[in-house]
Amino acid sequence: MWRGGSDGRYVDYDVPQRDSQTVLDVVTFVQRNIDATLSYRFACRVGMCGSCAMTVNGRPRWTCRTHVSKVAKGGKLKIGPLANMPVIKDLAADMREFFQKWQNAKGVFAPSKTRKDPIAPIKPDDPARIAANAGIECINCGVCYAACDTVRWNKDYLGPAALNRAWTLVNDERDAGQGARLAAVSAEGGCMSCHTHESCHELCPNSLNPTASIAGLKRRAMKAYVRGGE
Amino acid sequence: MNARLYILQRGTAAIMAPLVLLHIAVIFYATHKGLTAGDILARTRGSVAWATFYGVFVLAISIHASIGVRTILGEWLGLRGRARATVAFGFGLLLLMLGLRAIAAVVLP
Amino acid sequence: MTMQTTAHRTNVLWLAFLVHRLSGLALAVFLPFHFLVLGLAISGEASLDGFLRWTDQPLVKLSEAALVGLLAVHMLGGLRLLTVENLGWFSGQRRLAWIAVIVAFIAAFAFLISVFK
After folding, report:
1. What's the pLDDT at C2?
2. What is the pLDDT, as a whole number, of residue A157?
3. How far is CA B35 from CA A13, A193, B22, B29, C5, in A?
4. CA A174 to CA A188: how far, in whole Å?
5. Backbone angles phi, psi at A67, to 5 degrees
6. What's chain C's Rg over C-alpha atoms?
7. Among residues 133-192 of chain A, which lie with CB inside 8 Å of chain C?
8. pLDDT value, residue C117
9. Closest-CA residue in chain B for A218?
10. A157-177: buried (b, 16+ CB within 10 Å) or exposed (e) per residue?
11. What is the pLDDT of residues A76-134, one digit of tens each?
12. Which side of chain A, N or C, has fewer Cβ within a 10 Å radius?
């Protein structure tokens, strides 16, 4: 397990193996029985909140939903904090930049009506609604961001989660902020920086497809650019 | 990468797809009996068609490759801002000049 | 040493990206030399012909076949991206990526056979 900040190191711990043990169980065992100074995050323990995301054997995943028996190589596990984020301490990464990029991508709903207006009738089989629904289950766990090499190589890149959210809002007909949003995702570091590696799609624990969302954003941004004639 | 560069790169890629197919076909045709300068020049000398074909090709590739190089400079070598823009633009200019010179070399009588 | 995600690098579509980038880089490096060689015709047919005789060597022919393959794989990979980006998402990306590589290999091989006959 990684101990310390960015200048830390891996420390070995021996943990008894149990049936149906998850990687989160292993981390918890170390903190409770071996070294109480180990820092890590978790909340629900049942694969709903995404708080326990860590790098396990080089792959970012939810530790509460990862069985040790499926990933341990020769009885060994390598556990570290999520990549592409500064390390706070041990297994906890600093997610502030991840959330800031969410804001920068205008991944926030901009209302167009008040409570006095009638409710907007959205048909569930409306193509835009279907597109939005395909991406709204994101719980900001950061796995896709940690997996993305473009995030790693390009510090301006907004990242798959932020852009995926922007896409769901681009498809929300009630939203009034489309102009600012399209401008935000077409700038340097926006959707055009995506190289379709598909690591996000491959590793998202909720089976979302940010690559597809970003491809959709590219089309919208291109249309807006051509029409806007900038 | 921003909207303008993206459109230029994807646009030149789309333009070049048929040009590349034709170019590969020409390569196969020209080389299968053994390539000589005489054969090449007999086809290209004084040909407006070849000049136009390769002219468009050279212009497109200069734009396309320089934008691609720009991305690699940024992502793998950490170059940014003016330094990156200068190197990438310089490379594009190099391709354009050498490419047009090559076309002149084989087309002009 | 900061954390690194490495397990995704065995994903076929990530490898497709790497092939696309490296083939583009190789072609970009090759192009100035290609243009310079053609420019030899400025000094007359004999000058270009002299160079072309040098390229008759088997090792050069092998490199030329590799270049044909690189051009084909770069274009086909690029077409896959253009399709996904403009015509909407479709499944079967992995299969297409493999097809691109196989077709490129065939093109390079066909070139090799054609020049070694």
Report:
1. 61
2. 97
3. 67, 42, 17, 10, 48
4. 27
5. -75, 130
6. 18
7. 146-147, 149, 152
8. 66
9. B3
10. bbbbbbbbbbbbbbbbeebeb
11. 999 999 999 999 999 999 999 999 999 999 999 999 899 999 998 999 999 999 999 99
12. C
pTM of the model: 0.91
Q: Which of C25, C27, C30, C31 to mutate to test the interface with B (most CBs of B within 10 A)?
A: C31
Please list every residue in chain B whose beta carbon sits closer than 8 Å to the beta carbon of residue C35: 95, 98-99, 101-102
Q: Which residues in B lie closer than 8 A to residue C114 (C-beta atoms)?
A: 28, 31-32
Question: Smallest Cβ distance to A225: which of B7, B75, B76?
Answer: B7
Give the pLDDT confidence of A153-193 residue by residue, as tens digits.
999 999 999 999 999 999 999 999 999 999 999 999 999 99
Residue type, C112: L
Q: Are A59 and A146 in contact (CB under 8 A)?
A: no
pLDDT number for residue A73: 87
**A23 or B42, greater pLDDT:** A23
- The residue of chain B with its CA nearest to that of C71 is B20
